[in-house]
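Fold this sequence, please.
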Amino acid sequence: MTMSESPRRLVLSKADEPVLEPVTKLGGQPVWVDEPQWPLSTELGTPMMFLGQFRLPGEGIRMAYLFMTGGQDHVDGTWEDEGARTR
């Protein structure tokens, strides 16, 4: 980081009602920017659990969505960042 750059902070606060805007958030339901594409576990074939969404910098509204296999279902290797590519 250079002297002209300022560090970024993430401040979490509890929402009193559902968040319906495309902002960074954890939990709840995703706020889709485009047509919804809920991911399915490749091993189990079941819908994955939504963990959060993150607003990306740049022009326009861009989001990154974070999902994982939910509940007690555990599939070896799929939690690793390279898990899907090594199968």
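The radius of gyration is 16 Å. The chain has no helices and three strands.
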